[in-house]
Amino acid sequence: MSRPPFFTIGYEQVSSAAVLDTLSGAGVDLLVDVRAVAASRRAGFSKSHLAAGVSERGIGYLHLRGLGTPAEGRQAARSGHYSELRRIYDAHLATSTAQEQLDELTALVKAGRRVCVLCFERHPEHCHRQMVADLICERVGVAVEHLMAPPI
Fold first, then answer.
1. What distance in Å separates the CA atoms of residue 35 and residue 64, rounded to the nearest whole number?
2. What is 6-147's CATH number?
3. Which residues pair with 115 in a beta bridge?
4. What is the DSSP secondary structure assignment for residue 72, as one 8-state letter?
5. Which of 17, 88, 105, 120 shows the smallest number of beta carbons within 10 Å?
6. Alpha-carbon span 140 to 151, nearest angstrom
7. Residue 20 near residue 54, CB atoms below 8 Å
8. By C-alpha distance, which of 146, 127, 133 is closest to 89?
9. Local confidence pLDDT in tens for the 152 residues of the chain
């Protein structure tokens, strides 16, 4: 039995309805929020609203805060310094909390769950979720599929 792909999605420039439709269309059954701070000024993307929205679609929600980008990494991403983001996030991944949560995420994917990690940036190459996806794919031997909801 082959495992489903590992999905990622960003919510920059999209509505919450478009993200929910995209997740449903891909058959995602668990959304894993990998933001350090699961709050947003964008409607529908704060932790409680997001969890309620995916629940209405029959999708589970899990916040793995320890896989979020530290503040200095988020600043590097906002400034377009992606190599700096990678350096900061690599150091963060060495922490025990990040390793424990990466192990938890790995176990979910190994169990055959249709998991999608969510963060803000639309393009995965500008986001730490690409690094998470690379690690999960290497650990589990699955393909990554970057979902893109239609922009607003």
1. 7
2. 3.40.1010
3. 30
4. H
5. 17
6. 31
7. yes
8. 127
9. 688 999 999 999 999 999 999 999 999 999 999 999 999 999 999 999 999 999 999 999 999 999 999 999 999 999 999 999 999 999 999 999 999 999 999 999 999 999 999 999 999 999 999 999 999 999 999 999 999 999 98
